[in-house]
Structure formats: C-alpha cells, structure tokens
Amino acid sequence: MSRYEDFWGGYTPSKPIQVEGGIKAKSKRGSIGDTWWSKRWVSVLESFGWSNRLERGRRYARKGQVLDFELSPGKVEAKVQGSVRKPYSVTIEIKPITDGAWDHVIEEMSQKAIFAAKLLAGEMPDDIEDAFEAADVSLFPVKSNDIKTHCSCPDSANPCKHIAALYYILAEEFDRDPFMIFELRGRTKDEISAALRKQRTVDDESPPEPEVLPVGEDAENAKEEEVALSMDDFWEGGESESFSVNIAPPDVSAAVIKRLGTPQFWDSKEDFVEKMGGYYEEISRRAIETAYCEQTEAKKKLNKEIS
Hints:
Elements: H1 36-46, H2 51-63, E1 66-72, E2 75-80, E3 88-94, H3 99-110, H4 113-120, H5 128-134, E4 147-151, H6 161-176, H7 179-184, H8 189-205, H9 217-225, H10 231-235, H11 255-260, H12 272-306
Antiparallel strand pairs: 1-2, 2-3, 3-4
C-alpha cells in the first residue's frame, strides 16, 4: 500500500486524544448556537469563506477537545487537545473598540430603557447593533483580518480545527452571557453596567421642561374644563378615553432569574435558568389568560348593568 494513501488534502489524518472534563458543545448536530447573537457570530465567521475549516472545528467542539479558555478585553486564550499529548495553545484577538466610540455606544444604549433591562437580564436586544452603527463601529467583526489568531499546532491553515473549535465554544458561551461579546470588543460586563446606570442617572436628574401655564382667556377656558368627577358620574359607566389596560407578557421573561443566575443550593443536572424560565413563561401565559377572562366578564357585567 502506498504511503500516499494515508494522505488527504495535504495533511496526515489523525484522531484527537480523547479527554475528560473538556468543554463540550451542547449541540449534537446541525448548527451551533441558540440565540440570534450567537448565530450572528457564526454566520459572520462563515461569511469569510471558512466553512470547510469550521466544519472540522465543530466536530472538535462537540467532542469536548477545548479544555478551557480565558476571556479578557479583546482577547481569548485557550488550551485545545489535539492528536499529540501536549494541548495546543490557541489565541483569538479582536481589536477593541476605542473608548470614545464606546462612550457613544453607551449613550445610544441609554436612550432605550429596554436595552439596559434586557442586557442585565442576560438577553441581547434585537436592534442592539443600531447603537454601534450610530457610533460608526460594528459589534461583530466585519472582515477576516479584523480577527488575529494563533495556534501552536503545525497546521498552516487559518483557522485550523483547534481555533475553529474555540470559535464554536465561544458561540455557546455567548448564548449564556451576551456581555462576553462586549468584552471581546473591549468592555467588561461591570464596566458597561456601571456606565449604563450612570448615564440613566444623569438622564433622570436632568431638569424637566418648564411648564407653560395658560394665561388670559386660555386660563379661564382651562378652569372650565377642570370639572371634578363625582361618584355618581363614575358609576354611570360609558366610554372613557383616559383609562385603558394593556395586558401583555413582560419585555424580558424571567428577568430576575436570569439576572441572579443559578443559586448555590441548586444540585439538579437540569439548567436552573432554563427550568425556571419555563415556569415563568407558563405563569405569564396563565396570568394573561385569567386577566382577559376577568376583563371580559367585567365588561359583560358592566354593559348589563348599564342596559
């Protein structure tokens, strides 16, 4: 048998050494990443023409070949077990966003209270990238040379399967904590949270717009319109444009649970946030159903009394 039959694609096929306790991707087949922001991360990488190389890394991620990783602003360092005894050292670097641009982004985020609420609850707002575009920067890499990588393995391909495996593990970590994406761009969760709170405080303490009081004839007309509503008038019913009830699910489901994370007493193998999140969604659904039923019955009763 020719020794060239052992070759394919310019390298010698090899199997990675199986390890215990590695970081395994939860996904067993298909794409990796559950949330829109982790899928966006993967799609950006695939857009650079790395699909074949990433496929090899996806298998490594599912086998648990990534032993550990450490994330710091603009940089990720990891150990990935390959086919030799000593794990390979992998580094991924993305140029951090400048402080000035970050200040602009934070200011844009603070304009929408839902941004801060969702982020603090562990969710990434759908239109968060608009805040970055307003500062003329991008949350995700735009081109392949925005990312610098290194692996101590002998494979000259970039990304090699060890780097690609780390890409996918990061995708699932982003699912769990979207602030990790921000840290990869230069700002930690604590820094962003503090900046958002500070910005919101400044906005709340801004002096209110001065009230323009009516004068002359306008003032007299305003007084005539201020008619006290008696109890008899109230119970007469009729339509009122000044009162309405909006029954809807919360903007962020299970916000408190997501914010506090898994408690120390939780010893089940099930994911605490996912488990409790399901309960919260069911409670919200039933509460809304009950509220609508009560509201409908109340309207029927009121209409009957009026008629």
